[in-house]
Amino acid sequence: MSPTLGLVLAGGLARRMGGGDKARIRIGGVTILQRVLGCLMSQCESIIINANGDPNRFADTGLPVVADGVPDFAGPLAGILAGLDWAAANAPRTEWLVSVPGDCPFLPKDLVARLHEARLAAGTPLACARSGKWRHPVVALWPVALREDLRRALVDEDLHKIEIWTTRHGIAIADWPVEPLDPFFNVNTPEDAARAETLAAQYS
């Protein structure tokens, strides 16, 4: 498997949770961020966090924290571009980046390998995850080589929809079942957090 940098997208505004960092919500006694990092550590060469605001709030992780380079909370593509730029500057031998949201407590341990297998089988430069009928465009594999094209789309075209940009280049799909547990269940609301707590008790 090609060396891959892990990027945790923790730069959202968490409006439906009343603000704050969703990644710090505790599920089964540990934060979602701890769960995400624990999953990625065995799959990635290194990990960085994309977050806006004060980076010191993630100082306890000991990981680099990278803010969006595109202003005004331009969405997840801005966070992905920030990760690709960091990789180009700090890990020049790393050609791939995998992005995951910071609010998914049950990510699969074969995520990176399966995404690479999917893009190799399809002959595409990009790959993303799907569970059941739902695509998860921010759970995806990105080549560092496409970062300037992504920058042009964001800055010159004001393009913010992930799937419009990925369709231009070709994207493979890696499938996971949703039973007994959707590995891409994400926590957006207090009700989601309560559901995740129940799922963690049943399946962790």
Describe it for me?
The protein has helices spanning 32-41, 76-90, 111-122, 147-155, 162-169, 190-203, and strands spanning 4-9, 26-27, 30-31, 46-50, 65-66, 96-101, 126-131, 134-143, 171-176. It is an alpha/beta fold. It has a single domain (4-203), classed as Alpha-Beta Complex (Spore Coat Polysaccharide Biosynthesis Protein SpsA, Chain A). The strands form two sheets. Strands 5-4-1-6-8-7-9 form a seven-stranded mixed β-sheet, with helices on both faces. Strands 2-3 form a two-stranded antiparallel sheet. β2 (26-27) and β3 (30-31) form a beta hairpin.
Tags for this entry?
single chain; about 200 residues; alpha/beta; Spore Coat Polysaccharide Biosynthesis Protein SpsA, Chain A; 7-stranded mixed beta sheet; about 35% helix; about 20% strand; globular
A few lines on this structure:
This protein has one domain: Spore Coat Polysaccharide Biosynthesis Protein SpsA, Chain A (Alpha-Beta Complex).
Q: In DSSP terms, counting alpha (H) and pi (I) runs of 4 or more, how many helices? A: 6
- Secondary-structure-based class equals alpha/beta
- Portion in beta strands: 15-25%
* Helix-strand string: EEEHEEHEHEEHHEH
Helix content: 25-40%
What name does the CATH topology carry? Spore Coat Polysaccharide Biosynthesis Protein SpsA, Chain A
Q: pLDDT under 50 segments (min length 5)?
A: none
- Number of structural units classed as domains: 1
**What's the end-to-end separation, in Å?**
27 Å
If classified by CATH, what would the architecture be? Alpha-Beta Complex
The biggest beta sheet reads: 7 strands, mixed
* Average pLDDT over all residues: 93
By CATH's scheme, which homologous superfamily applies? Spore Coat Polysaccharide Biosynthesis Protein SpsA, Chain A
What's the CATH class, please?
Alpha Beta
Strand tally: 9
